[in-house]
Amino acid sequence: METHESILGNSSRHYDARLANAILIVLGKYQSGGLQGLVDQFVVQGLGEVVNSWISTLENKPVSISQIRRVLGSEMIDQIASQAHMSTKEASSQIVLLLPQLVDKLTPSGRIPPGENLLEGINALTGSMQH
Fold first, then answer.
1. Which segments of the chain does DSSP mark as H helices, in order?
2. Other CB atoms within 10 Å distance of the CB of residue 15
3. Mean pLDDT of the chain
4. CATH code for the domain of 109
5. Cα–Cα distance list, 90 to 5, 8, 36, 37, 76 (Å)
6. In this predicted structure, what is the pLDDT of residue 23?
7. Which of 23, 65, 69, 98 counts the highest number of beta carbons within 10 A?
8. Which band of pLDDT confidence, cut at 50, 70 and 90, is reported for residue 119?
9. In the chain, how many domains are there?
10. Confidence tier at 4 by pLDDT (50, 70, 90)
């Protein structure tokens, strides 16, 4: 499985590596529909403009902790925090900064790469970066 370093490169240094990997693991395992499912959840919650900015080649729009809680739900945030061995509060405050970067890096061409789940999308992105 690819790690956050292969996706974020050096830009992830100021983030907790455990959190980046936890986001990828939990979203890849539990988020229905993978990356597209995550995007759909943002759209359903009225945050389509925000998540689409992460996918586009334009500047990423920020997201708040309350918006992340609304989209991911407390159970998924708890799972990410547990996987990263940190408090839910700490994880939430870092997810708002890290998730936009992860989605941005997973969609380098301004669209979601093909794949049935998030892990396949990660592998597709990593493979295209090596060519």
1. 4-8, 17-30, 34-44, 48-55, 65-84, 88-106, 118-130
2. 18
3. 78
4. 1.10.10.690
5. 21, 20, 26, 25, 14
6. 83
7. 23
8. low
9. 1
10. very low
Selection from 74, 73, 47 nearest residue 61 by Cα: 47
For residue 63, what are the domain limits? 4-130
Rg from Cα positions in the chain: 13
**pLDDT above 50: residue 123:** yes
The tally of CA atoms less than 13 A away on the side-chain side of residue 33 is: 8
Residue 38 confidence (pLDDT) = 86
Euclidean distance between CA atoms 58 and 83, whole angstroms: 31
Quote the CA–CA distance of 75 and 83 in Å, as a whole number: 12
The secondary structure of residue 56, as a DSSP letter, is S
Contact (CB, 8 A) for 113 and 125: yes
